[in-house]
Prior knowledge:
27% strand; 4-stranded antiparallel sheet; alpha+beta; Ribosomal_uL16_dom
Amino acid sequence: MSWTHLRFGVFGFRALEEKWMDKRQIDALRLLLQRKLRDATGKRAELWTHVEPNVPVTKRTEKRMGGGKSPIKGWKGRVKQGQILFEWAAPVQIPVEEIQSKCSVRLRSVVDPVYQLQSIQRNWSL
């Protein structure tokens, strides 16, 4: 399934380039977003992660063939261009600049168009 549109949340972050993300980077971003959402709302908000570290990375060895696979060094997840990495349901928009320092992929903030239209209609009705 390609995650190019918001499915569950109202706000999210979209990748602008294709790269690999380390498991530590994904966890650091998730924890940072959870902390920002908790500080803004005062409670735990729903957060969805759409990038999974599912590719094992092994250490390259300079040996001849036949020695088997070397031990797993870590895990990485592939991020495609235009993929939604994180989305959340709390009505809190987090600036990209606060998150970009922890992420190796360039990001853009995304807002659900239905939520955006409803907020415009609410402002006009006042």
